[in-house]
Design a protein that fits this description.
- By secondary structure, the protein is mainly α.
- The protein folds into 2 domains: 8-52, no CATH class; 63-138, no CATH class.
- The chain has helices at residues 8-23, 30-44, 49-52, 63-88, 95-101, 103-109, 122-130.
- The longest helix is centred in the middle third of the chain and has 26 residues, at 63-88.
Length: 149
């Protein structure tokens, strides 16, 4: 069961989330049952559990790339949430103003000190927002298996 849409960190987080649901006797939804069935089937058919659970990386894969993607995703998701809240409340909110309001948050997420000059700029966040690689983070609503944020 190799996953093309989930990072190793997301797979690990999903497993932790599901284990807590199972331990507390909280019922699983269909999507969660399907995920577990695929994991168990892959292991039963001989796939390496370390690969199935995202514990190993391929040659050349770095943890830094995974972590950076998740941080960028958090910034984009936060912007999407603010835009959705503004729409729900009937306020008009422009993407440029919302991005500007998230500059400090983006710089802190990426590990830059608030007292430093801004390293992450409005233009950079706009490039992230427009990049199809991060499209899934634009959804302000998350499903039960998307817990990596």
């Amino acid at each position: 069961m190799t996953s093309t849409t989930k990072s190793p960190k997301q797979l690990r987080d999903m497993c932790l989330f599901l284990s807590s649901q199972l331990e507390s006797n909280f019922p699983l939804d269909d999507q969660q049952r399907i995920f577990l069935a695929r994991v168990f089937r892959a292991i039963g058919e001989g796939e390496d559990p370390r690969v199935v659970f995202g514990q190993s990386r391929n040659s050349g894969e770095r943890e830094l790339v995974e972590t950076t993607t998740e941080k960028i995703g958090a910034v984009i998701h936060s912007i999407a949430m603010d835009l959705a809240i503004a729409r729900r409340e009937g306020r008009s909110s422009r993407i440029s103003a919302t991005i500007k309001a998230h500059l400090d948050f983006a710089n802190r997420m990426m590990g830059y000190n608030v007292n430093q000059p801004l390293v992450i700029t409005e233009e950079k966040i706009r490039r992230w927002w427009d990049n199809p690689k991060y499209k899934r983070y634009k959804n302000p609503y998350r499903d039960t298996l998307d817990v990596a944020l």
